[in-house]
Design brief:
Number of domains: 2
Oligomer: single chain
Distance between the termini: 44 Å
Order of helices and strands: HHEHHEHEHEHEHEHEEHHHEEHEEEH
Number of strands: 13
Mean pLDDT: 97
Structural class: alpha/beta
Helix content: 40-55%
Shape: globular
Low-confidence stretches: none
CATH architecture of the largest domain: 3-Layer(aba) Sandwich
Length: 390
Amino acid sequence: MDPDSLSSRVQGVTPSLTLAVTNQAKALRAQGDEVYGLAGGEPEMDTPDHIKAAAAKALQDGKTKYTPAAGIPELREAIASKLHADNGLEYDPKQICVTSGGKQACMNAIMAMCDEGDEVIIPAPYWVSYPEMVRLCGAEPVIVETTEENGWKMTADQFEEAMTPRTKMVIINSPGNPTGAVYSEEELRAIGEVASYEDIIILSDEIYEKLVYDGHKHVSIASISEELKSLTVICHGFAKAYSMTGWRLGYTAAPPELAKAIAKIQSHTTSNATTFAQYGALAALSGPQDFVDDMVNEYDVRRQFVYARLSAIPNVSVHNPGGAFYFFVNCEPLGLKSQNLCDKLLTRYKVAAVPGIAFGHDSSVRLSYCTTLDVINEGITRFEEFCRAH
Protein backbone atom coordinates (compact mmCIF):
# COMPACT_ATOMS: atom_id res chain seq x y z
CA MET A 1 0.00 0.00 0.00
CA ASP A 2 1.18 3.49 -0.84
CA PRO A 3 1.69 5.36 2.48
CA ASP A 4 0.34 8.49 0.80
CA SER A 5 -3.02 6.76 0.44
CA LEU A 6 -3.47 6.79 4.21
CA SER A 7 -5.72 9.46 5.66
CA SER A 8 -4.24 12.90 6.20
CA ARG A 9 -5.46 12.54 9.77
CA VAL A 10 -3.14 9.66 10.55
CA GLN A 11 -0.27 11.02 8.46
CA GLY A 12 -0.22 14.07 10.71
CA VAL A 13 0.22 12.03 13.88
CA THR A 14 3.64 11.30 15.37
CA PRO A 15 4.33 7.78 16.70
CA SER A 16 4.87 7.49 20.45
CA LEU A 17 8.52 8.00 21.39
CA THR A 18 7.93 6.39 24.77
CA LEU A 19 6.94 3.14 23.06
CA ALA A 20 9.90 3.46 20.70
CA VAL A 21 12.33 3.67 23.63
CA THR A 22 10.68 0.68 25.27
CA ASN A 23 11.01 -1.36 22.08
CA GLN A 24 14.69 -0.40 21.68
CA ALA A 25 15.39 -1.49 25.24
CA LYS A 26 13.58 -4.80 24.66
CA ALA A 27 15.65 -5.42 21.53
CA LEU A 28 18.89 -4.88 23.47
CA ARG A 29 17.73 -7.23 26.22
CA ALA A 30 16.90 -9.85 23.58
CA GLN A 31 20.55 -9.62 22.47
CA GLY A 32 21.66 -10.39 26.02
CA ASP A 33 22.41 -6.83 27.18
CA GLU A 34 21.40 -5.72 30.64
CA VAL A 35 19.41 -2.52 30.28
CA TYR A 36 18.52 -0.23 33.18
CA GLY A 37 15.02 0.93 32.41
CA LEU A 38 14.19 4.44 33.61
CA ALA A 39 11.74 5.06 30.78
CA GLY A 40 8.67 3.25 32.06
CA GLY A 41 5.37 4.88 32.90
CA GLU A 42 3.77 2.10 34.90
CA PRO A 43 4.16 0.81 38.46
CA GLU A 44 6.29 -2.33 38.68
CA MET A 45 4.11 -3.75 41.47
CA ASP A 46 1.47 -6.34 40.60
CA THR A 47 -2.22 -5.54 40.81
CA PRO A 48 -3.47 -6.28 44.36
CA ASP A 49 -4.82 -9.81 44.81
CA HIS A 50 -8.33 -8.78 45.86
CA ILE A 51 -8.76 -6.86 42.59
CA LYS A 52 -7.60 -9.82 40.50
CA ALA A 53 -9.83 -12.15 42.51
CA ALA A 54 -12.88 -9.97 41.86
CA ALA A 55 -12.26 -10.02 38.11
CA ALA A 56 -11.65 -13.78 38.17
CA LYS A 57 -14.90 -14.32 40.08
CA ALA A 58 -16.75 -12.18 37.56
CA LEU A 59 -15.44 -14.44 34.81
CA GLN A 60 -16.47 -17.56 36.70
CA ASP A 61 -19.89 -16.03 37.32
CA GLY A 62 -20.41 -15.47 33.61
CA LYS A 63 -19.91 -11.70 33.56
CA THR A 64 -18.80 -11.93 29.95
CA LYS A 65 -21.52 -10.09 28.04
CA TYR A 66 -21.95 -6.47 26.97
CA THR A 67 -22.58 -3.85 29.62
CA PRO A 68 -24.20 -0.43 29.16
CA ALA A 69 -21.87 1.74 27.08
CA ALA A 70 -21.06 3.91 30.11
CA GLY A 71 -20.25 0.93 32.35
CA ILE A 72 -21.91 -1.27 34.95
CA PRO A 73 -24.13 0.74 37.30
CA GLU A 74 -22.32 -0.50 40.43
CA LEU A 75 -18.97 0.84 39.21
CA ARG A 76 -20.41 4.18 38.15
CA GLU A 77 -21.98 4.52 41.59
CA ALA A 78 -18.65 3.64 43.23
CA ILE A 79 -16.84 6.25 41.13
CA ALA A 80 -19.41 8.89 42.08
CA SER A 81 -18.88 7.94 45.75
CA LYS A 82 -15.11 8.20 45.31
CA LEU A 83 -15.40 11.67 43.80
CA HIS A 84 -17.58 12.75 46.73
CA ALA A 85 -15.30 11.27 49.41
CA ASP A 86 -11.93 12.25 47.93
CA ASN A 87 -12.73 15.43 46.03
CA GLY A 88 -15.88 16.88 47.57
CA LEU A 89 -17.68 16.56 44.24
CA GLU A 90 -21.30 15.57 43.68
CA TYR A 91 -21.94 13.64 40.47
CA ASP A 92 -24.93 11.58 39.50
CA PRO A 93 -23.71 8.14 38.32
CA LYS A 94 -25.31 9.03 34.97
CA GLN A 95 -22.54 11.63 34.58
CA ILE A 96 -19.86 8.92 34.77
CA CYS A 97 -18.60 6.96 31.77
CA VAL A 98 -16.26 4.00 32.29
CA THR A 99 -13.72 3.84 29.46
CA SER A 100 -11.08 1.51 28.08
CA GLY A 101 -8.28 3.29 29.90
CA GLY A 102 -7.57 6.86 30.90
CA LYS A 103 -6.33 7.50 27.38
CA GLN A 104 -9.74 6.72 25.91
CA ALA A 105 -11.31 8.95 28.55
CA CYS A 106 -9.25 11.88 27.23
CA MET A 107 -9.88 10.98 23.60
CA ASN A 108 -13.63 10.68 24.10
CA ALA A 109 -13.75 14.05 25.86
CA ILE A 110 -11.79 15.84 23.13
CA MET A 111 -13.82 14.18 20.39
CA ALA A 112 -17.07 15.14 22.08
CA MET A 113 -16.12 18.83 22.34
CA CYS A 114 -13.83 19.76 19.46
CA ASP A 115 -14.62 20.50 15.84
CA GLU A 116 -12.37 21.08 12.86
CA GLY A 117 -10.40 24.28 13.40
CA ASP A 118 -10.99 24.53 17.15
CA GLU A 119 -7.96 25.18 19.34
CA VAL A 120 -6.93 23.30 22.48
CA ILE A 121 -4.42 24.93 24.82
CA ILE A 122 -1.82 22.50 26.19
CA PRO A 123 0.95 23.48 28.64
CA ALA A 124 4.37 22.05 27.76
CA PRO A 125 5.96 19.80 28.83
CA TYR A 126 2.91 17.66 28.14
CA TRP A 127 1.96 13.99 28.04
CA VAL A 128 2.90 12.73 24.58
CA SER A 129 -0.63 11.85 23.51
CA TYR A 130 -2.40 15.17 24.13
CA PRO A 131 -1.38 16.97 20.92
CA GLU A 132 -1.89 13.85 18.82
CA MET A 133 -5.39 13.28 20.22
CA VAL A 134 -6.27 16.87 19.42
CA ARG A 135 -4.99 16.50 15.85
CA LEU A 136 -6.87 13.22 15.38
CA CYS A 137 -10.05 15.09 16.29
CA GLY A 138 -9.34 17.73 13.65
CA ALA A 139 -8.53 20.46 16.15
CA GLU A 140 -5.27 22.36 16.60
CA PRO A 141 -3.03 22.09 19.67
CA VAL A 142 -1.77 25.44 20.96
CA ILE A 143 1.33 24.87 23.06
CA VAL A 144 2.14 27.10 26.03
CA GLU A 145 5.77 26.85 27.13
CA THR A 146 6.35 26.62 30.88
CA THR A 147 9.64 26.93 32.78
CA GLU A 148 11.56 24.93 35.32
CA GLU A 149 11.78 28.09 37.45
CA ASN A 150 7.97 28.13 37.72
CA GLY A 151 7.77 24.43 38.52
CA TRP A 152 6.76 23.55 34.95
CA LYS A 153 3.29 25.05 35.47
CA MET A 154 1.26 27.31 33.19
CA THR A 155 0.18 30.58 34.75
CA ALA A 156 -3.23 32.16 34.31
CA ASP A 157 -1.58 35.03 32.42
CA GLN A 158 0.05 32.61 29.98
CA PHE A 159 -3.28 30.87 29.49
CA GLU A 160 -5.09 34.12 28.79
CA GLU A 161 -2.42 35.26 26.35
CA ALA A 162 -2.75 32.00 24.38
CA MET A 163 -6.52 32.25 24.03
CA THR A 164 -8.13 33.19 20.72
CA PRO A 165 -11.73 33.23 19.49
CA ARG A 166 -11.14 29.62 18.35
CA THR A 167 -10.11 28.32 21.78
CA LYS A 168 -12.44 25.49 22.82
CA MET A 169 -10.57 23.63 25.54
CA VAL A 170 -7.58 23.71 27.87
CA ILE A 171 -5.86 20.61 29.26
CA ILE A 172 -4.62 20.54 32.85
CA ASN A 173 -2.69 17.51 34.11
CA SER A 174 -2.01 17.66 37.85
CA PRO A 175 0.02 15.87 39.09
CA GLY A 176 1.66 15.96 35.70
CA ASN A 177 3.52 13.69 33.33
CA PRO A 178 6.43 14.19 32.62
CA THR A 179 7.32 16.80 35.26
CA GLY A 180 5.45 15.76 38.39
CA ALA A 181 4.11 19.32 38.70
CA VAL A 182 1.21 19.77 41.12
CA TYR A 183 -0.99 22.85 40.73
CA SER A 184 -2.14 24.53 43.93
CA GLU A 185 -5.76 25.48 44.54
CA GLU A 186 -4.82 29.14 44.08
CA GLU A 187 -3.18 28.44 40.72
CA LEU A 188 -6.14 26.39 39.53
CA ARG A 189 -8.59 29.04 40.69
CA ALA A 190 -6.76 31.67 38.62
CA ILE A 191 -6.74 29.42 35.53
CA GLY A 192 -10.40 28.61 36.08
CA GLU A 193 -11.29 32.28 36.26
CA VAL A 194 -9.73 32.82 32.83
CA ALA A 195 -11.53 29.76 31.42
CA SER A 196 -14.85 31.05 32.71
CA TYR A 197 -14.50 34.32 30.74
CA GLU A 198 -15.28 32.50 27.49
CA ASP A 199 -16.72 29.22 28.81
CA ILE A 200 -13.60 27.29 27.83
CA ILE A 201 -13.93 23.58 28.61
CA ILE A 202 -11.30 22.27 31.04
CA LEU A 203 -10.03 18.73 30.54
CA SER A 204 -8.63 17.83 33.95
CA ASP A 205 -6.45 14.72 33.71
CA GLU A 206 -6.21 13.43 37.29
CA ILE A 207 -4.73 9.97 36.71
CA TYR A 208 -1.83 10.63 39.15
CA GLU A 209 -4.11 12.02 41.87
CA LYS A 210 -2.95 9.64 44.61
CA LEU A 211 0.76 10.08 43.91
CA VAL A 212 1.63 13.28 45.78
CA TYR A 213 4.50 14.00 48.18
CA ASP A 214 6.06 16.58 50.49
CA GLY A 215 2.75 17.94 51.72
CA HIS A 216 1.44 18.62 48.22
CA LYS A 217 -2.29 18.10 47.86
CA HIS A 218 -4.14 17.14 44.74
CA VAL A 219 -7.00 19.54 44.02
CA SER A 220 -9.56 18.87 41.32
CA ILE A 221 -10.31 22.13 39.54
CA ALA A 222 -13.96 21.04 39.39
CA SER A 223 -14.15 21.23 43.19
CA ILE A 224 -13.35 24.95 43.34
CA SER A 225 -16.78 26.21 42.29
CA GLU A 226 -20.01 25.06 40.68
CA GLU A 227 -19.19 27.24 37.68
CA LEU A 228 -15.88 25.47 37.12
CA LYS A 229 -17.50 22.08 37.67
CA SER A 230 -19.92 22.95 34.85
CA LEU A 231 -16.94 23.60 32.55
CA THR A 232 -14.80 20.61 33.57
CA VAL A 233 -14.53 17.05 32.34
CA ILE A 234 -12.48 14.93 34.74
CA CYS A 235 -10.45 12.18 33.06
CA HIS A 236 -9.22 9.54 35.48
CA GLY A 237 -8.42 5.85 35.75
CA PHE A 238 -7.17 2.90 37.74
CA ALA A 239 -3.80 2.31 36.08
CA LYS A 240 -1.43 4.28 38.29
CA ALA A 241 -2.94 4.11 41.79
CA TYR A 242 -3.83 0.42 41.64
CA SER A 243 -1.10 -0.82 39.27
CA MET A 244 -3.67 -1.76 36.63
CA THR A 245 -2.08 -0.39 33.46
CA GLY A 246 -2.86 -3.47 31.37
CA TRP A 247 -6.46 -3.64 32.52
CA ARG A 248 -7.32 -0.58 30.40
CA LEU A 249 -9.88 1.01 32.69
CA GLY A 250 -10.55 4.71 33.05
CA TYR A 251 -13.49 7.03 33.43
CA THR A 252 -14.85 10.50 32.80
CA ALA A 253 -17.01 12.67 35.05
CA ALA A 254 -18.64 15.48 33.12
CA PRO A 255 -21.60 17.86 32.91
CA PRO A 256 -24.76 15.96 31.90
CA GLU A 257 -24.85 16.81 28.19
CA LEU A 258 -21.15 16.17 27.73
CA ALA A 259 -21.45 12.89 29.66
CA LYS A 260 -24.18 11.77 27.25
CA ALA A 261 -22.02 12.70 24.27
CA ILE A 262 -19.04 10.77 25.65
CA ALA A 263 -21.18 7.67 26.19
CA LYS A 264 -22.58 8.03 22.66
CA ILE A 265 -19.06 8.09 21.20
CA GLN A 266 -18.08 5.06 23.25
CA SER A 267 -21.14 3.13 22.09
CA HIS A 268 -19.77 3.39 18.54
CA THR A 269 -16.10 2.66 19.34
CA THR A 270 -15.36 0.10 22.07
CA SER A 271 -19.04 -0.46 22.99
CA ASN A 272 -18.01 -0.72 26.64
CA ALA A 273 -14.95 -1.31 28.80
CA THR A 274 -14.16 -5.01 29.32
CA THR A 275 -16.97 -6.41 31.44
CA PHE A 276 -15.17 -8.63 33.95
CA ALA A 277 -12.40 -6.04 34.35
CA GLN A 278 -14.99 -3.53 35.54
CA TYR A 279 -15.67 -5.77 38.53
CA GLY A 280 -11.97 -5.61 39.34
CA ALA A 281 -12.18 -1.82 39.28
CA LEU A 282 -15.18 -1.98 41.58
CA ALA A 283 -13.10 -4.01 44.04
CA ALA A 284 -10.28 -1.47 43.74
CA LEU A 285 -12.54 1.37 44.86
CA SER A 286 -14.55 -0.52 47.47
CA GLY A 287 -11.75 -2.64 48.94
CA PRO A 288 -8.76 -1.85 51.20
CA GLN A 289 -6.61 1.12 50.18
CA ASP A 290 -3.43 0.14 52.05
CA PHE A 291 -1.80 -0.88 48.75
CA VAL A 292 -2.08 2.70 47.51
CA ASP A 293 -0.66 4.14 50.74
CA ASP A 294 2.24 1.68 50.73
CA MET A 295 3.02 2.39 47.09
CA VAL A 296 3.04 6.16 47.63
CA ASN A 297 5.37 5.76 50.62
CA GLU A 298 7.71 3.56 48.58
CA TYR A 299 7.73 6.01 45.68
CA ASP A 300 8.49 8.86 48.04
CA VAL A 301 11.59 7.02 49.29
CA ARG A 302 12.73 6.56 45.70
CA ARG A 303 11.90 10.15 44.78
CA GLN A 304 14.04 11.52 47.59
CA PHE A 305 16.88 9.17 46.67
CA VAL A 306 16.80 10.14 42.99
CA TYR A 307 16.54 13.86 43.73
CA ALA A 308 19.62 13.73 45.95
CA ARG A 309 21.56 11.87 43.26
CA LEU A 310 20.48 14.07 40.36
CA SER A 311 21.11 17.29 42.29
CA ALA A 312 24.76 16.32 42.61
CA ILE A 313 25.33 15.80 38.88
CA PRO A 314 27.07 18.68 37.05
CA ASN A 315 25.64 20.21 33.87
CA VAL A 316 22.04 19.23 34.59
CA SER A 317 19.29 20.72 36.72
CA VAL A 318 16.12 19.21 38.09
CA HIS A 319 12.96 20.41 39.79
CA ASN A 320 11.88 18.26 42.73
CA PRO A 321 8.50 16.86 41.64
CA GLY A 322 5.50 17.08 43.94
CA GLY A 323 3.71 14.15 42.35
CA ALA A 324 3.61 11.28 39.82
CA PHE A 325 6.78 9.15 39.47
CA TYR A 326 9.05 11.02 37.07
CA PHE A 327 11.93 13.47 37.05
CA PHE A 328 12.19 15.86 34.12
CA VAL A 329 15.90 16.60 33.91
CA ASN A 330 17.09 19.74 32.12
CA CYS A 331 20.22 18.74 30.19
CA GLU A 332 20.65 21.91 28.12
CA PRO A 333 24.29 22.53 29.21
CA LEU A 334 25.26 19.18 27.68
CA GLY A 335 24.55 20.66 24.24
CA LEU A 336 22.70 17.62 22.88
CA LYS A 337 19.24 17.28 21.44
CA SER A 338 17.18 14.98 23.63
CA GLN A 339 16.79 12.20 21.06
CA ASN A 340 20.53 12.11 20.41
CA LEU A 341 21.20 12.16 24.14
CA CYS A 342 18.86 9.25 24.84
CA ASP A 343 20.20 7.22 21.92
CA LYS A 344 23.75 7.54 23.26
CA LEU A 345 22.62 6.87 26.81
CA LEU A 346 20.93 3.65 25.71
CA THR A 347 23.51 2.29 23.28
CA ARG A 348 26.65 3.20 25.25
CA TYR A 349 25.49 3.15 28.86
CA LYS A 350 22.49 0.80 28.63
CA VAL A 351 20.11 3.23 30.33
CA ALA A 352 16.65 3.74 28.84
CA ALA A 353 15.22 7.26 29.20
CA VAL A 354 12.60 9.17 27.24
CA PRO A 355 13.72 12.17 25.17
CA GLY A 356 12.15 15.46 26.15
CA ILE A 357 11.15 16.22 22.57
CA ALA A 358 8.35 13.68 23.08
CA PHE A 359 6.93 16.06 25.68
CA GLY A 360 7.61 19.28 23.78
CA HIS A 361 10.92 20.20 25.47
CA ASP A 362 14.00 19.17 23.50
CA SER A 363 16.69 19.95 26.06
CA SER A 364 15.40 17.58 28.76
CA VAL A 365 14.92 13.88 29.41
CA ARG A 366 12.36 12.04 31.51
CA LEU A 367 13.59 9.55 34.08
CA SER A 368 11.09 7.32 35.86
CA TYR A 369 11.48 5.92 39.37
CA CYS A 370 8.72 3.33 39.11
CA THR A 371 11.22 0.48 39.22
CA THR A 372 13.40 -1.12 41.89
CA LEU A 373 15.95 0.87 43.88
CA ASP A 374 18.72 -1.36 42.53
CA VAL A 375 17.80 -0.51 38.94
CA ILE A 376 17.37 3.16 39.85
CA ASN A 377 20.75 3.31 41.61
CA GLU A 378 22.67 1.73 38.74
CA GLY A 379 20.74 3.69 36.13
CA ILE A 380 21.44 7.03 37.82
CA THR A 381 25.10 6.07 38.31
CA ARG A 382 25.43 5.44 34.59
CA PHE A 383 23.49 8.61 33.76
CA GLU A 384 25.95 10.55 35.93
CA GLU A 385 28.89 8.93 34.13
CA PHE A 386 27.34 9.98 30.82
CA CYS A 387 26.84 13.57 31.99
CA ARG A 388 30.39 13.86 33.34
CA ALA A 389 31.77 12.50 30.07
CA HIS A 390 30.00 15.25 28.14
